[in-house]
Here is the input.
Amino acid sequence: MSITLTWHGHANFQIAGGGVNILIDPFFNGNPAAVSSYTEAAKPDLVLVTHMHGDHVGDAVSICTDTGALLGCVVGAAERLEQAGLAGEQILNGIGFNIGGTLEYKGARITMTQAFHTSEAGCPVGYIIVMPGGCTIYHAGDTGIFSSMSLWGELYSIDVALLPAGGCFTMDQRQAALAAKLLRAKKVVPMHWGTFPALAQSMDDFPAELAATSPTSEAILMRPGQTVTL
Here is the structure.
């Protein structure tokens, strides 16, 4: 089954295939790396938010309101987004879900994972998404490296890991390469870089870093607006 992955810049990814379209951290307006608006992106069925920072919540409420998509996030963040105008019936599981929990929507299984960062409501999280057909994608959210990433590598066969590698607010390239090893990820897409001056502006060195640390992982360097088939 063909699964496509589109990077809209920063941590904003769209995963589609098997009858479901999932948008994660939909930061379009105000995103200097985005090459399109959310109205130009494919209509999502489900929007996932990793944490309550403006560059990750992005246009989530507007997108769900305009398209009818459901929104998945951690308990606490869901309440804040409802206060911001999101209809309660559009929140996955009504109140959201929590770390370790798994929900299924349109054939995709979404497991919420821990992340080590900050958040204005709820707590920061990541997601392991098993698409229809079995393709497994890990979006780490904003996080530093943590050793229990290895547990997710034991529990899941991770086809693609979307890992922050820009430094300053998250892992840098060296940490992201070690994270890939812990996760046993087959492919790695670095994210959360190049968007703002405080972040790394290039991932040119990342493939070599990854090859040295996790030689069974393949680096995929994407550009904003690009779609790859997994």
Remarks:
- The longest helix spans residues 173-183.
- The mean pLDDT is 97.
